[in-house]
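Dear Dr. H.,

I hope your travels went smoothly. While you were away I took the liberty of generating a structure for the chain from your last submission, since the lab meeting agenda had it listed for discussion. I wanted you to have the full record in hand beforehand rather than looking at slides cold. The sequence, exactly as received, is reproduced here:
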Amino acid sequence: MLGKGIEIRKRYANRKDGEIMIFTEHCQKSIELFGEDGAEYHKWLDQYSAKIGYNHRYILHNKEGIEVAVQLFGERARKHLEQHIKDDYGREAIPSVIDLRDPSEIY
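The corresponding predicted structure, in token form, is as follows:
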């Protein structure tokens, strides 16, 4: 399993700087890592994307957003959302709402 995870991370790590993952890529990665697409979780996390674009990340792409999702969907959602956020920010650390006050610390 560890080898598979490393292979998957390498594939997605080859993305160009600033290139974002789209919904279907988040779902595909969830299938590869967790055996299910987690579509409802990914849709929920990105629900404001169409309205405010890139800045939608400031609303739910954080530790507190994950906790809200766990209350809504159950603990099963956590791993999908954590991976989604890590992929979107391109780093392993998941920011808190406080961290997002200074986006230069995240990117």
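Two observations you may find useful: The CA atoms of residues 1 and 33 lie 9 Å apart. The mean pLDDT is 81.

With kind regards,
E. W.
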